Amino acid sequence: MQLGKDTGISLGFLAGTTLGSGIAFLFQFRAYEVIGSVTFFGIIGALIGLWTAVVLRQRQQSDPKT
C-alpha cells in the first residue's frame, strides 16, 4: 500500500481526533472543550500525517535500492 498525501492526512486526522477525544475524556472536559480538543488534535494529526507521507515519499524516491 502506498502512503499518499490523502492517506497520510486521513490516518493522521483519525489518530489526532482519537487522541483528542481520549484526552477530553480523561480530563472530563465540557462540551466546548471537547470540541476544541478534538479539533486541535485532529488538525495537528492531519499535518503530521501529511508531513510523514511527504518524507516517506522523498526517501522512497531517493533510495537507490528500489
Q: In words, what does this structure look like?
A:
With 66 residues, the chain is mainly α. The protein contains 2 helices and no strands. The protein has helices spanning 5-26, 31-62. Helix 1 (5-26) runs antiparallel to helix 2.
Helix-strand blueprint:
Elements: H1 5-26, H2 31-62
Helix pairs in contact: 1-2
Q: What is the structural class?
A: mainly alpha
Strand content: under 5%
Give start-end ranges of low-pLDDT stretches: none
Overall pLDDT score: 92
> What overall form do the CA principal axes indicate?
rod-shaped
Key phrases:
mainly alpha, 2 helices
Quick gist of this model?
The chain is mainly alpha-helical and about 70 residues long.
